[in-house]
Amino acid sequence: MTLHDDAVRALKDWTAPETDDGAQEQLRLDYLDHLLAHPDGLWRSCLPAHITASAVVVDPAHERVLLTLHPKVGRWLQMGGHCEPEDALLGAAALREATEESGIAGLRLLESDGRPLPARLDRHRVHCPGRDRPENVHLDVQYVAVAPAGAEATISEESLDLRWFSYDALPELADRSVRSLVARARELTG
């Protein structure tokens, strides 16, 4: 199975939450249409849009979330980024990014039937690295990564800051997407 096949399977198998008047379900269908139209739809070279993978790192026992202050965006975000050729599964790409950017070994993605379970989808405009790159769209598949007991985060070179926040005290510079993802993570791990 290719990464493309896994992404299609993950999106086909995922049941969108019913709390947003169908917006998540419409995104799911849009992502599937994108993958159907673009065999290269998971790679940053696919323009004007490509699939990305992210994971919000949570510590449910302490009701907190780990966020990174993104240097280019200037906002507190979950960990995530582009898929790489070595990623066999879309969830594995999200877990790799979360592990690299948090420095925490032993993160565990929430699963259903032994497979990583997406939590939400988010579509947003970005400029990928490179001066000659046009603005494009990230079709982000968002997961929840549970930190092991006693986990200590280590800031990476991809971040200006890395910090734990209480679910009820997210930073002002966390956007609507992050707030929605944290709420969903809280619901799934509660």
How is this fold's topology laid out?
Layout (H helix, E strand, L loop, with lengths): L2 H11 L9 H15 L11 E11 L4 E6 L6 E2 L1 E4 L7 H13 L5 E2 L1 E2 L2 E2 L3 E8 L7 E12 L14 E6 L9 H14 L1
Parallel strand pairs: 1-9
Antiparallel strand pairs: 1-2, 1-4, 2-3, 2-10, 5-9, 6-7, 8-9
Helix pairs in contact: 1-2
Task: State the gist of this model.
The protein is an alpha+beta fold.
Descriptive overview:
The protein is α+β, with helices and mostly antiparallel strands and 190 residues long. It has a single domain, classed as Nucleoside Triphosphate Pyrophosphohydrolase, CATH 3.90.79. The chain is 28% helix and 29% strand. It has helices at residues 3-13, 23-37, 90-102, 176-189; strands at 49-59, 64-69, 76-77, 79-82, 108-109, 111-112, 115-116, 120-127, 135-146, 161-166. Strands 1, 2, 3, 4, 5, 8, 9 and 10 form an eight-stranded mixed beta sheet that branches. A two-stranded antiparallel sheet has the order 6-7. Helix 1 (3-13) runs antiparallel to helix 2 (23-37).
Key terms for this structure?
two-stranded antiparallel sheet, Nucleoside Triphosphate Pyrophosphohydrolase, 8-stranded mixed sheet, 28% helix, globular, 190 residues, alpha+beta, 4 helices
Number of strands: 10
CATH homologous superfamily classification: Nucleoside Triphosphate Pyrophosphohydrolase
For the record, the count of structural domains works out to 1
SSE order, one letter for each helix or strand = HHEEEEHEEEEEEH
Helix content: 25-40%
Q: Estimate the global geometry from the Cα principal axes.
A: globular
Q: Ranges with pLDDT <50 over ≥5 residues?
A: none
